[in-house]
Each structure stands twice: as C-alpha cells, then as structure tokens.
C-alpha cells in the first residue's frame, strides 16, 4: 500500500481575511476589537462559573463586562469623532459615528434583552431577544459590500 506524500508549502497558506480587511469591513479599530474580545473572554469565564454553580452572582453582574465594553467603545467612538471632526474631515467623522452607534445600540439591546430573558423578568421569545443581532449582521453585510 503506497501512501501519497503531498508536500505543503506553508508560506503559501493564507488566512481567509487579513486584519486590515477585518478592520475595513467591520469598521472598527484594532483597539475596539481587543476591547470586545477581552470583555467576551471575561464574560465567558463568568458564565461558566455561574453554570457550574461555583458562584451565585446574578445575571446582571455577569453581564457587566459586556456592558462595560459597550460603554468604553461608545466613549472611544466619541473621542475619535471629535478628533476627526476637529481635523476638518467632518463627513468621515459623522459617517463613522453613525455606523458605530448603530452597531453599539444593536449589541447593547440584544445583551440587555438576553439578560432580562435569563432573569425571567420578561416573557419575550429568543427570536425577539436576538432580533437586534440580525439587524447588526445586515448592517455589516451592507458595509462589507460598500468596501468593494
């Protein structure tokens, strides 16, 4: 039985998307990506601790890293808006602010409704809870189509 050996040239392997493409398509900076990924990591650890019943923290306190990421991202977007606007590029400043606020509102609403759903405060369905995520995905698709 002969085995075919295929040599793989690892220098030719490429990622699907480069970091520059991701930043351009999503419309956020590297700092914002790092901020959200760090807060998602902390949130994930807290969720695991809650589900394994290691901690008795409320769902509202477990969602604090996500709310914190949204707040810090909103502050960062405001600073970027002011700096871009003062540099004389008001159109780019307003476009970035509007797109960032749209995404932040969609994320915050879905996080808020999901937290309410987990605490049994409201009786809305999961499809209603995550409807704003679907809106955010459609906004990302439109933005990705505009870059090419």
Defining key terms:
148 residues; mainly alpha; 7 helices; 0% strand
Total beta strands: 0
Task: Using the alpha-carbon principal axes, give the shape.
Answer: elongated
Low-confidence stretches: none
Helical content stands at: over 70%
Q: State Rg.
A: 20 Å
Structural class, by secondary structure, is mainly alpha
Estimate the mean pLDDT confidence: 87
Q: Tell me the series of helices and strands, N- to C-terminal.
A: HHHHHHH
The end-to-end distance, rounded to whole angstroms, is: 49 Å
Give an account of the 3D structure:
By secondary structure, the chain is mainly α. The chain is built from seven helices and no strands. Helix 5 runs antiparallel to helix 7. The model has no long low-confidence stretch (mean pLDDT 87).
Write the SSE topology.
Elements (H helix, E strand, L loop, with lengths): L18 H8 L3 H22 L7 H4 L1 H23 L3 H29 L7 H4 L1 H16 L2
Helix pairs in contact: 2-4, 4-5, 5-7
What does this entry show, briefly?
Helix content is 72%, strand content 0%. With 148 residues, it is an all-alpha fold.
């Amino acid at each position: 039985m002969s085995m075919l050996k295929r040599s793989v040239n690892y220098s030719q392997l490429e990622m699907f998307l480069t970091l520059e493409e991701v930043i351009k398509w999503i419309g956020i900076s590297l700092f914002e990506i790092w901020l959200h990924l760090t807060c998602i990591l902390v949130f994930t650890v807290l969720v695991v601790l809650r589900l394994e019943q290691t901690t008795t923290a409320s769902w509202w306190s477990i969602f604090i890293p996500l709310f914190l990421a949204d707040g810090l991202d909103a502050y960062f977007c405001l600073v970027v808006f002011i700096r871009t606007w003062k540099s004389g590029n008001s159109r780019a400043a307003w476009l970035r602010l509007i797109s960032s606020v749209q995404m932040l509102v969609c994320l915050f609403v879905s996080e808020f409704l999901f937290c309410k759903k987990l605490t049994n405060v409201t009786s809305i369905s999961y499809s209603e809870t995550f409807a704003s995520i679907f809106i955010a995905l459609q906004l990302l698709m439109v933005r990705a189509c505009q870059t090419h």
